[in-house]
Write a structure and sequence with these properties.
mainly alpha; two-stranded antiparallel ribbon; Growth Hormone, Chain: A; MFS_trans_sf; globular; 495 residues
Length: 495
């Protein structure tokens, strides 16, 4: 018999999506379902623009505040450290009260703090605002992912997961384009990047305002009103069910944090100081470093969409493992060349692997989560992993400051520079091996109908009970409801 961690590595045939082609399912989506998905995607894109505004401005921030790279990277570390607090605060609000208003408030808070980042005058002010900013940013991912995925049919959630997660790469891409075009043309330089990012986040909040609450919460709140549940009673139930969930799933919580620690080291270790690596260790101009960053994010977008789609057919864990192996294969191309073309190709390939694996994470965490806590559980696991990996930029900056290499400068003379290439290659190689092992031994609930379970303020939610009064949305095509009914009957027979 196969070991436990190898069982169901490829989903059993009866668990795979059956019947209708992907395009048919996509054609059956209504305007609200599309709206929920794209507003979640936009919120996550804003998160990336806001976060990478610092990474893309390291050299200008050094000049502005008279600080070395290691000091500027402290701002990145503090942002990542405080994101866990935001994940808890906004995740609890979302699972208790709904997806709409917590996400709107979260986006507006991000917009205000990003705007403030562009007005600071001292380095300590900058660190303080970025710390507060981390709390605001921490809530975005859990709320965005739950909003985007829970209103879609099971058949398209793999592809949707990949596209959603690469909102992060699109955000990095947009920030890089703004940094390449707007920033050099304005007297405020780096500040204009932060102000533009603030405006985009405010725009995302306005878009979410015009869309209705998630269907799952509309249904759950209607059921509670029919039962005569009061606000105070629902809050007591929520607290009780949260405690039940933690006692029931504490081991799963630890596993999810370990998984997200590895993934966040992969992401931040390959992205946060990448422009600095190209300018400091390879001698590129800031312009060429930004162009290479844009090329890398094109690879990320392609990898995330492909991996998300592939996971719908071969499973979540197997897809992650394949793309993590690709990361290991592409590390030499990422760090060894000296020419722009080869290094840009390395950036494309490494981000194809990193963000391809990441593309499966939103749906993997959503399906793995206790169903009633799809905003809190994934969001907190994600941001606790961020907290553990928050020092990745400082690790790389410190390591490179103690490890040097020699390059030929623009004047044709040898020049001793920090060796970011070796440091990043070692870090990403070790972390990729860790992620491979953790993914292999973990659970997978491929094709889970988590939208049929109770909301967190309903009795039994902490025990993952299914809502008996569940009624399929009238907007869902009848042909898809038949597919779900067949799958439910099959699952019941198997049990």
């Amino acid at each position: 018999m196969a070991p436990y961690f190898l069982r169901n590595l490829i989903p059993r045939r009866e668990k795979r999506e059956e019947g209708l082609p992907l395009l048919t399912v996509l054609a059956g989506l209504n305007f609200v379902q599309w709206g929920h998905f794209w507003t979640g995607w936009l919120a996550w894109t804003c998160d990336a623009i806001d976060f990478f505004s610092v990474s893309l401005s390291v050299s200008r921030l050094q000049t502005q505040f008279g600080q070395p790279t290691t000091a500027i990277s402290t701002a990145i570390t503090l942002t990542l450290l405080f994101r866990s607090a935001g994940a808890v605060i906004f995740g609890v609000l979302s699972d208790r009260y709904g997806r709409k208003w917590p996400l709107i408030f979260n986006l507006l808070l991000v917009a205000v703090l990003e705007l403030g980042s562009g007005f600071v005058q001292t380095f300590h002010q900058f660190l303080g605002v970025r710390s507060l900013f981390g709390i605001a940013m921490g809530g975005i991912w859990g709320l965005a992912a739950s909003t985007a995925l829970e209103n879609l049919p099971v058949e398209v959630r793999g592809l949707a997961s990949g596209v959603l997660q690469q909102g992060y790469a699109v955000g990095y891409l947009l920030a890089a384009v703004i940094n390449l075009t707007l920033v050099p043309e304005t007297a405020e330089t780096w500040r204009s990047l932060f102000w533009t990012a603030s405006g985009i986040s405010a725009f995302a909040a306005v878009i979410r305002f015009f869309l209705p609450e998630s269907e799952v919460f509309i249904r759950a709140k209607a059921a509670e009103r029919a039962r005569g549940g009061s606000t105070s009673k629902k809050t007591r139930i929520f607290v009780h069910e949260t405690w039940v969930m933690l006692k029931r799933h504490w081991l799963l919580c630890i596993y999810a944090v370990l998984l997200m620690t590895g993934f966040n080291f992969l992401s931040h270790g390959s992205q946060d100081l990448y422009p600095t690596y190209l300018t400091s260790s390879k001698g590129f101009t800031s312009h060429n470093a930004t162009v290479a960053t844009i090329i890398g994010n094109c690879g990320a977008i392609a990898g995330g969409a492909i991996a998300g789609w592939l996971s719908q057919y071969i499973g979540r864990r197997l897809t992650i493992m394949i793309f993590v192996l690709l990361i290991g294969a592409f590390i030499p191309l990422w760090i060894l060349p000296t020419g722009f073309g080869a290094l840009a190709a390395g950036a494309f390939c490494i981000q194809f692997g990193v963000q391809g694996a990441w593309g499966v994470i939103p749906i993997q965490l959503a399906e793995m989560s206790p169903p009633a806590f799809r905003a809190t559980f994934p969001g907190v696991a994600y941001q606790l992993g961020n907290m553990v990996s928050s020092a990745s930029a400082q690790i790389e900056a410190t390591g490179a400051s103690h490890l040097h290499t020699t390059i030929i400068g623009s004047d044709g003379k040898p020049k001793v520079v920090p060796d970011y290439a070796t440091v990043q290659g070692i870090l990403i190689g070790v972390v990729a091996a860790f992620v491979l092992v953790v993914t292999l031994i973990g659970p997978e609930h491929h094709g889970s109908h988590f939208e049929k379970h109770k909301a967190a303020f309903e009795e039994g939610a902490g025990r993952d009970e299914i809502e008996e009064s569940y009624v399929e949305s009238a907007s869902r095509p009848a042909s898809l409801r038949v597919v779900d009914e067949k799958r439910s009957s099959s699952d019941e027979a198997a049990v």
